[in-house]
Amino acid sequence: MMIHIGLTGWGDHDDLYQEGTPSRNKLRIYSRHFPLVEVDSSFYAIQSPGNYQKWAEMTPDDFSFVIKAYQGMTGHLRGKQAFASRGEMFQTFLESIQPVIRAGKLKAVLFQFPPWFECSRKNVDLLRDAKDQMGAIPVALEFRHTSWFSPAMMDRTLKFMEEEGWIHSICDEPQAGNGSVPTVLHSTHPDYCLVRFHGRNVGGWLDKGNPHWRDVRYLYRYSEEELLQWSENIRHLQQSSKEIGLLFNNNSGGDACANAKQMMQILGIRYESGDREPEQLDLFDQLGN
């Protein structure tokens, strides 16, 4: 059983970098600490194949990526669509990530659907279409509307995900009504299970009237007791998936890195890459030209 721990994005984790570290060096430094990262820039814009090629080349052979699906693919996009058709949008996205696939570094494409994406026949059809568009690419599914895991629908939702081949992205997040989902400890794919830690800041999650809402939405540091409980949850998940990825997204206050390293300690995991450069080289990576 493999457990890989990482963070969402690599640019904003000040614990990892000396002041003044150029952005271009951060992923290389990040990859010495964690074997997994979530690419979230792909949600806001489909990245160029050149970016993915660069990221694949600057990380160790055993490093891997979870790439977030573009917002137009999940129904988040507001305003004019840049593509002539849904098919063209998916095809452009698939072409963009090919360098990561060729490098053998793609764990999954993450489809995180919005809070207004409720359980309905229309949306089930959209999920089926998305899965068809992605072909054989491993895809993870994360809901934000509680209706998918209501008592009446939970078993049907999980069965659907199993039958359609979706990887379950399990959430630890604030329990804040319809715009959040419970933690459902059920893996739907034999090869991979994803867990994303969003924190438990209910007030920040709901306070969308705050102009700085996004700065406090994920403001939370998990306690040792909470992480110890999650170590038990992970042991449970190990029974049904060959590999588990843990991604910490609680970074509004810079807590994600510390919590991820704390979880590594609790689970007795020490990441060692065969391609890892000597620690003494860190100083030169931190310096600009």
Number of domains: 1
User: Number of helical runs?
Assistant: 13
CATH superfamily: Protein of unknown function UPF0759
- CATH third-level topology: TIM Barrel
Which shape, going by the Cα principal axes? Answer: globular
Strand adjacency order, main sheet: 1-2-3-4-5-6-7-8
Q: What top-tier CATH class fits best? A: Alpha Beta
**Helix content class:** 25-40%
Strand proportion, as a percent range, falls in: 15-25%
Radius of gyration computed on alpha carbons: 19 Å
Give the termini separation: 42 Å
What is the H/E string? EHEHHEHHHEHEHEEHHHEHH
Pfam families: DUF72
InterPro entries: DUF72, UPF0759_sf
Give structural notes:
Pfam families: DUF72. InterPro entries: DUF72 (IPR002763), UPF0759_sf (IPR036520). With 289 residues, this protein is α/β, with parallel strands linked by helices. The protein has a single domain (2-286), classed as Alpha-Beta Barrel (TIM Barrel). It has 13 helices and eight strands. The chain has helices spanning 23-30, 41-44, 49-57, 71-74, 86-96, 98-102, 121-134, 154-164, 202-206, 213-216, 224-237, 256-267, 282-286; strands at residues 2-8, 36-39, 64-68, 106-112, 139-142, 167-172, 192-197, 243-248. It has an eight-stranded parallel barrel with strand order 1-2-3-4-5-6-7-8. Helix 1 links the parallel strand 1 (2-8) and strand 2 (36-39). Helix 11 packs across helix 12 (256-267). The chain starts with a strand and ends with a helix. Mean pLDDT is 90; it is low at 274-289.
